[in-house]
Amino acid sequence: MVCGLLACAFAFGSVQAAPRQTTRSKEKAAAEAARAGIQQKLNALKKDISRTESEKEDAADELAESEEKISDANRSLRELADEQAETNTRLKDLATEEARLGDTIAAQKRQLAKLLREHYIAGNEDRIKLLLSGDNPNRINRDLQMMAYVSQAQAKLLNSLRTNLAAVEANHAETQNARDELEEIAQEQTSQKTLLEKEKAKRAALLANLSSKLTDQRKQASRLEQDEQRMSGLVDRLTRLIREQEIAAAAERKRQQELAAARAKAAAEAKQRALARARAQREERERLAREAAKEAAKTGKPVKPLPPPKPEPEETRVAEEPAPKPEAPQRSADTALAADLPSGAFESLRGRLPAPISGKIAARFGAKRGDGPTWRGMFIKAPEGTDVRAIAAGRVVFANWMRGYGNLIIINHGGEYLSIYGNNQTLVKQAGDAVKPGDVIASAGNTGGNEESGLYFELRHLGKAFDPSSWIRF
User: Fold this and answer.
1) pLDDT confidence of 14, banded at 50, 70, 90?
2) Signal peptide: which range, if any (predicted)?
């Protein structure tokens, strides 16, 4: 029987588990689907701004598609590199675990082989020989118990061996799954790199052809004014949308609180009714007990036992149970722009906010901008690809290409405070993403037709731009 168990254990270990299908693609598809509603709404805002402008021709528009694709490709490569590093770490851990399991299984097989050899040498009829030996019954009983202990140890060893063999097969399957994911990542990286090189070449050609035209356009005051109006229009629409969502969220919180209060009140009233019924029932039983005692004293008969108390109604027991806590409303595309931060959180950081990028300030708020309007923000020179970081916690409410600002990202910090980051090469975060202070949200560039590489940065409150100098530690 022991040999049969060993054969089953080895056969189990030899079966090759079919490699599992990776879930990475499904998870990515689900994440993209969750963003679809947000992005559709923001794209509609962007198109609405374009329709309201009288000027439809702009040389920078020809760069929009190319610069957006370059940003997407760079973001994808960054995400794929992070995935690759995590998967490689997981593979190393799996290899270490597989080596440990292999050593354990080898030791268990050696131990089992030794037990089987000893069992074979002793013979398979040990129990019968002992019973027929005519030896002392106490000794026979002791020997039989010892043999039972040995059999139990063998069975336990076999079970442990089976468990470890199953763990090895699971390890193999997970390792194969991780290798499949690495292959998927490598294929996507190759595809994204090809796309990136293609779009960079296209953008270089466009810049060469449009360089002089872009320079002329940037000198025109009307173009700069249109850029500012475009930004103000976008901020006003986003501010209104965020305000509407915050009002809706506050109304939902109030509704949940009122519902919880109503449940608590109903539970308290039910409990009071139950206590009153219990008190009345107890008093009634005490009265009946007194009357029965008097009757027994008169007649000399034993006191009759009182009937058991009536069971408490089901609705009372249910009402006395604590009401379940209301579930937090699910974040949908209509509430994904709310910052979810306490009131005054951003204002309390005034003068202590970190700079969004490391570089040289080339233009300050309020300075004259050539022959055009004054600067509504700051321009910080920095090499292409330099990390751009969130200055405070918040939620990304816009991440897209915009005429005059290139790849643009806007973060809502609550209290109707917005931080704006323009001219980026790559947008790392997307609309709806929550960010923490110092998170990398983009990389510096010169998109939108800007002549120099760097970051255009603004702070706005209630839709109006204000000087960041007293807020940011540059």
Assistant:
1) very low
2) 1-17
Q: How far apart, in whole angstroms, are the C-alpha atoms of residue 132 and residue 203?
A: 97
User: What pLDDT, on a 0 to 100 scale, did the predictor assign at position 36?
Assistant: 67
Which tokens belong to 406?
């290139």
CA distances for 292 relative to 13, 309, 310, 342, angstroms = 78, 16, 19, 67
Parallel, antiparallel, or unpaired: how do β-strands 440-444 and 387-389 relate? Answer: antiparallel
Helix (H, G, I), strand (E, B) or coil at 461: strand
- Report whether 62 contacts 206 (CB < 8 A): yes
Contacts of 352 (CB under 8 A, 6+ apart): 473
- DSSP for 193-225 reads HHHHHHHHHHHHHHHHHHHHHHHHHHH-HHHHH
Mode of pairing for the β-strands spanning 394-402 and 440-444: unpaired
293 compared with 93, residue with greater pLDDT:
93
The span from the CA of 292 to the CA of 297, in Å, is 9
pLDDT at 239 over 60: yes
In sequence order, the β-bridge partners of residue 427 are: 442
Which sign, positive or negative, has the C-alpha torsion 180, 182, 186, 192? positive
Distance from C-alpha of 110 to C-alpha of 117, rounded to nearest angstrom: 11
Q: Looking at residue 122, what is its pLDDT?
A: 56
Mean per-residue pLDDT for 394-415? 92
Burial of 307 (0-12, 13-18, 19+ CB in 10 A): exposed
pLDDT band at 42 (very low <50, low <70, confident <90, very high): low
392 and 426 Cβ atoms separated by less than 8 Å: no
Calculate mean pLDDT across residues 162-167. 80
Strand, coil or helix: what is 377? Answer: coil
Task: Check if the beta carbon of residue 3 is closer than 8 Å to that of residue 155.
Answer: no
Tell me if 158 sits within 8 A of 4, measured CB to CB: no
How does residue 410 score in pLDDT terms, banded at 50, 70 and 90? very high
Q: Pick from 402, 437, 440: which is nearest to 423 by CA?
A: 402
Token look-up 């005490």 returns 286
Tokens of 24: 């990475």
CB burial readout 58-83, b (16+ within 10 A) else e: bbbebbbebbbbbbbbbbbbeebeeb
| Helices and strands in the chain, H and E counts | 7, 12
The answer to whether 286 and 262 are in contact (CB under 8 A) is: no
What sign does the dihedral 61-65-69-70 (CA atoms) show?
negative
User: How many percent of the chain have pLDDT more than 90?
Assistant: 22
